[in-house]
Design a protein that fits this description.
About 35% of the residues lie in helices and about 25% in strands. The protein is an alpha/beta fold. The chain folds into 2 domains: about 160 residues, 3-Layer(bba) Sandwich (FAD/NAD(P)-binding domain), CATH 3.50.50.60; about 210 residues, D-Amino Acid Oxidase, subunit A, domain 2 (D-Amino Acid Oxidase, Chain A, domain 2, 2-Layer Sandwich), CATH 3.30.9.10. The strands form 4 sheets. The chain has an 8-stranded mixed β-sheet. Strand 19 and strand 20 form a beta hairpin.
């Protein structure tokens, strides 16, 4: 099977551009054989490779990626490891579903806590939780109050913050109220993925900058790249939205582009005007019109705003320049005391969603298991899906596999162009209906 669409690195990722340069692992060259292939070095692939190496210490694992670790979608997100569903329902079934998700997410966070500590991964990993915020009183009433009630039903710790207290914590008067939950983690996602990739066990061979141009599964896995050929009897597929190229999950995934910018570091005088001491992360009550933001340990502010339908998985540089200007305007409206602070970098990252928010997890061929489609919560969902795909592939009796399977499987999408028309119409409706949260 010929692969016709490949990831493309435009070298704009702000998270990696503020880091020191890194030398990638060598690309695939010549004929290479392994006991296992893990295809894709995002969070799912990194977790699957690490878990396989631990479960099968005497076997060889080849982790292959089209680009450099940290430059793909996993290194371009907002840097949240979320331990709770953003918005959950109040029925018993929905609450039980939330508890299953929390078990999975917290298992992933515990694994990352340990990896960051043991391998001394410098990625600004911090246990600062997150604020789920509303701009308008309507948004607070319709989204945050039900969220508060559901957290009470789940027995989860939280704090309701509003008014002047919220302004002091976030440094902005823009928000009406927030629900703060302490269980999540914040990080530089490019630094985290780099660190996870560079600290894998010795029986994992990492092959970067090795785009797969042909896939064959007759008598075992065979992957062709411009530099060579990789063979193994078994594979874990962790290529997320690109997994369709390998014949799996046809017409199951929607591709969106999320747009982000990061400022230069605030100087001492600006930090005094800002008046915030602790790093923070906030997610909006409505993801279509609201803004996801971070205040980092090195005194930068990150804005992610703009979610567009992008089936081509391509977003041009000229469009990103327009995004940079828009983000600067949004930044000035939220932080009027910092209008001299500019956006240092702007970038795009691609998101893979299913219609019913279900992941692409499980056995998809006799010798292929998948951990794809994280539905915009890639850090925790990617880590636990990769871990559990490795457990399933090696026959481990892990009770969390049942929790994972309870999340369902991706439902079929309408054919294009009907899908395109429907998604774009839904976006416009959401933007208009939730304009009070802009």
């Amino acid at each position: 099977m010929k692969i016709t669409r490949l990831p493309s690195n435009d070298s704009t990722n702000g998270w990696s551009r503020i880091l020191a340069r890194r030398r990638p692992h060598p690309a695939l060259s010549g004929q290479v054989k392994a006991d296992w292939i893990v295809l894709g070095a995002g969070y799912a692939g990194l977790a699957a490779a690490r878990r396989l190496a631990w479960l099968r210490p005497n076997q060889s694992i080849a982790l292959i990626d089209a680009g450099e670790i940290g430059e793909n979608a996993s290194g371009r997100n907002s840097g949240f490891a979320v331990d709770l569903p953003h918005n959950v329902g109040s029925s018993l079934a929905e609450l039980n579903g939330s508890r299953r998700f929390m078990r999975l997410a917290r298992a992933a966070i515990a694994q990352m806590d340990e990896a960051v500590r043991i391998h001394q991964i410098e990625c600004d990993w911090s246990a600062d939780g997150k604020y789920h915020t509303a701009v308008s009183p309507r948004g607070a009433g319709e989204i945050l109050r039900p969220f508060e009630a559901e957290l009470k039903a789940l027995g989860e710790p939280y704090e309701w913050v509003e008014g002047e207290a919220l302004r002091r914590r976030l440094g902005s008067p823009h928000f009406t109220a927030a629900v703060y939950t302490p269980g999540g983690r914040l990080m530089n996602p490019a630094a985290l993925t780099r660190g996870l990739g560079d600290s894998l066990p010795e029986n994992v061979r990492v092959l970067e900058c090795s785009p797969v141009t042909r896939f064959d599964n007759q008598g075992g896995i065979c992957l062709d790249t411009p530099g060579g050929q990789l063979r193994a009897p078994r594979m874990i597929l962790a290529a997320n939205g690109f997994s369709e190229q390998f014949g799996f999950y046809p017409r199951r995934f929607m591709h969106l582009v999320a747009l982000a910018s990061i400022t230069r570091p605030l100087n001492r005088a600006e930090r005094t005007d800002f008046g915030v001491e602790r790093p923070w992360g906030l997610t909006p009550a409505n993801a279509f019109v609201g803004i996801t933001m971070r205040y980092t340990n090195d005194h930068r502010i990150v804005i992610r705003q703009g979610l567009d339908y992008c089936p081509s998985q391509r977003f041009g540089i000229e469009a990103q320049l327009a995004v940079k200007a828009r983000h600067k305007s949004l930044f000035d409206a939220r932080f009027p005391m910092l209008t001299d602070v500019g956006m240092e970098h702007s970038w795009a990252g691609f998101v893979c969603l299913s219609r019913n928010s279900a992941p692409g997890f499980g056995r998809v061929a006799q010798n292929v298991w998948s951990a794809v489609c994280q539905n915009a919560m890639g850090v925790t969902k990617g880590i636990f899906s990769g871990m559990l795909a490795a457990d399933m592939a090696t026959g481990q009796n892990n009770p969390l596999i049942a929790d994972m399977e309870s999340l369902g499987t991706p439902s079929l999408l309408p054919p294009r162009p009907f899908l395109d028309i429907g998604v774009r119409a839904r976006f416009q409706w959401e933007l208009w209906r939730n304009r009070h949260e802009a």
